[in-house]
Amino acid sequence: MPKPTLRELSRQAVKQRVSDVAIDLFLERGYESTTVEDIAAAAGISERSFFRYFATKDAVFFARGAEYTAAFIERVLERPAGEAPWISLQTAVELTLTSFDNDVEFTKAREVREILAASPELMARQFAHVADSQRELGDALWDRWQADPARHTEDPEIRLVIRALVGSMLGVLTEVMLHAEDLPPAERMRLVRATLDAIRPARADLGGAP
Amino acid sequence: MPKPTLRELSRQAVKQRVSDVAIDLFLERGYESTTVEDIAAAAGISERSFFRYFATKDAVFFARGAEYTAAFIERVLERPAGEAPWISLQTAVELTLTSFDNDVEFTKAREVREILAASPELMARQFAHVADSQRELGDALWDRWQADPARHTEDPEIRLVIRALVGSMLGVLTEVMLHAEDLPPAERMRLVRATLDAIRPARADLGGAP
DNA sequence: GCATTTGTGGCAGTCACTGCCAGAAATGAC
DNA sequence: GTCATTTCTGGCAGTGACTGCCACAAATGC
């Protein structure tokens, strides 16, 4: 309620509305055949103003996705600092899947993924975002690893190792989200668990099988 | 020398030349500030014709990269069919690194990667291409797995597992190519070996530690 | 109440990319 | 070699994403 927030608040509200309108249009006519002008008109703003809220056309689509990604990263970092990276990642994946199944916006999210899968251009951006998250999360886990005196090491490859672990984890998560959404939640969870167990690294300090 | 080849041959020659000219311009002024018109003019063709050779501006950049990717996939598939997927992948990575170090175009390739790293737009496309390769290679390895009666299985997750293995492998390879290019070849090879050993899956049929 | 900051629409311009068309060039049959 | 056919090419107009600039309106601070 303080003064600086008010402006920001209305800005967020407008962004939200524009994003909602845009998603609806994408669902109706597809991403490519919806112009920014269409979106702006439907949202009641000018095209010029659209680009003051979103840097690019695809940003309006990913506005929501970024929240999911941030939530996932947050879940990983909420795990105890001394935990093996693989275990932290695995736990966060399971929490994410569970919360996702309970999401009231489940149907909406599914439609959004249809838009995504139908547009190669959007898919490319999506992969880039995932890669960014991978780097961000990998670095965060690496910092945490370095901060723990018990396992502090000068190994140059540990950074690479951690990034690779994050990469395979995100790969499985993305794959499941895109191609196993028809499965009932329990079955999907079982599939993810089995997959993660299969590729679990052997090294104990990374989270190797008990 | 047969008739249908002649046309195709000159077409390939033109593509090659346009691509070379374009890379030079990108190195000089950067990717974003080089227009398609610039490239076309420098190559002695019209802008309209440029788009008859390359579907998009970035295609002219990736014309070469696609060959490297194809070569990597080929190396994996040249491995004996019964070999564990992880071993096939690891061997192909090492072969790729070795051949890369011996490449006469090493310097050029390095400059090309600089262009890539400097442009977020190109990076996004690059990730998308890697993701495509991941799918392609994963499916190929999966087919091979299914074809082997000794380990034929109806496990629904084995496909996911193999894709994840490919993903972490490509992740390490990409990371090393982009960020460890300053290391001497022998040191880089050691780094890659150590990383791959660390994340090697425990399961023996996938290629687990001996 | 007024000065300053911030947000807005309009307009012109750049750049990637496409469809269309008319002319040049290579190809193949005779 | 000639001619009809196919293929390639440049030019041109148009669309759509995106930016810089400007004048004006609205909110904010005092």
Automatic annotation (TrEMBL), chains A, B:
<dbReference type="InterPro" id="IPR023772">
    <property type="entry name" value="DNA-bd_HTH_TetR-type_CS"/>
</dbReference>
<keyword id="KW-0804">Transcription</keyword>
<feature type="DNA-binding region" description="H-T-H motif">
    <location>
        <begin position="35"/>
        <end position="54"/>
    </location>
</feature>
<dbReference type="InterPro" id="IPR001647">
    <property type="entry name" value="HTH_TetR"/>
</dbReference>
<dbReference type="InterPro" id="IPR050109">
    <property type="entry name" value="HTH-type_TetR-like_transc_reg"/>
</dbReference>
<protein>
    <submittedName>
        <fullName>TetR/AcrR family transcriptional regulator</fullName>
    </submittedName>
</protein>
<dbReference type="Pfam" id="PF00440">
    <property type="entry name" value="TetR_N"/>
</dbReference>
<keyword id="KW-0805">Transcription regulation</keyword>
<feature type="domain" description="HTH tetR-type">
    <location>
        <begin position="12"/>
        <end position="72"/>
    </location>
</feature>
<dbReference type="InterPro" id="IPR009057">
    <property type="entry name" value="Homeodomain-like_sf"/>
</dbReference>
<keyword id="KW-0238">DNA-binding</keyword>
